[in-house]
Amino acid sequence: MSNTNQTVPNTLPLLRDRIDSIDSQIQSLINERARCAQKVAEVKLAEQGDEKVVFYRPEREAQVLRRVMSRNEGPLDNEEMAKVFRQIMSSCLALEKPMRIAFLGPEGTFTQQAALKHFGKSIVSAPMAAIDEVFREVESGAANYGVVPVENSTEGVVNHTLDSFRDSRLKICGEVEERIHHHLLVSPHINSEDVMHIYSHQQSLAQCRAWLDRYWPHAERIAVSSNAEAARLASEAGLNGRAVAAIAGEVACELYSLVKVSANIEDHPDNTTRFLIVGNQLVPASGKDKTSLLISAKNEPGALYRLLEAFERHSVDMTRLETRPSLVSRWGYVFYIDFVGHYLEESCQAVISELQERASEVKVLGSYPVAVL
Predict the structure, then answer these.
(1) Which of the listed residues 95, 129, 148 is the one where a domain comes to its end?
(2) Does residue 171 or residue 49 have the better pLDDT?
(3) Where is the ACT domain (predicted)?
(4) Do 114 and 148 fall into the same domain?
(5) What is the dihedral of CA 107, 108, 114, 116, to 10 degrees?
């Protein structure tokens, strides 16, 4: 195999020949990796049997992607290089056993976009109408994993997702942070200057309010159930000659063959949504992990203080605290806490042990790799 660090030729024909040679080497290595993945599947099946084998290992994939980013020397940036390897791993994993991933639908939502970012495109997508349906699909074994939104940097937490963990046995197996970019989309069959109605989810309309006020003050804003539904309506309206637009993301744009009138129209460019991956198994430590807990506090003075004090004493970094009504007793509350570390680490075990002594219930929702992409 030739040395890829040798002097790069400086004429167009030679450069193209060089690219063709490199492409051939890359293709051979990808297929070699795929054959290794098939061998891994064979070994797992021989050792564990078809009923118990787990092909997807969140901690292993997080470790691989971290190494990819740490050794990257450019000119592709770390995230772009990791995306390339993410898809290679997705394609190789599909050779072992394609995964069915449930997500909050319909198709074209940001949740589907997060699912594809985390698992790659070589999956079977299963859109669900509601968050609790995603949980049920995974609990029943009809889907390998589920993807649900949990918080947005501008709109706050998704309470329905937090509440779904109360009675579910599912564990959090991973997280995805997706930068939310909204685009103004129209059908290729209409003139964008004729648009008088703009469809989108109410949160997306809120996240683009200032931009719409400035550039489309004359257009009526119509809230619908999802951005994907808005994109569908825009595509169908275009076929009927009606001039309407939608605010939606990249996946919806591609899915419904729409045209971008304006890109990245969100008022806050750092608008980010965090999604959780839910599954049936606990995840081993990856070396850079986060743990989520559900805690029911005792109804007594200073209860919350005594819970939080355990984190300070054992130098465990708590990154999030959310409060929800308990639905069991009047004015009772449960707390959702995220902290840095894996639940099996000594310091984390010490914190959990103290919490169990001081709270009426402590439920480990899962330890999982910190989002890589």
Answers:
(1) 95
(2) 171
(3) 292-369
(4) yes
(5) 70
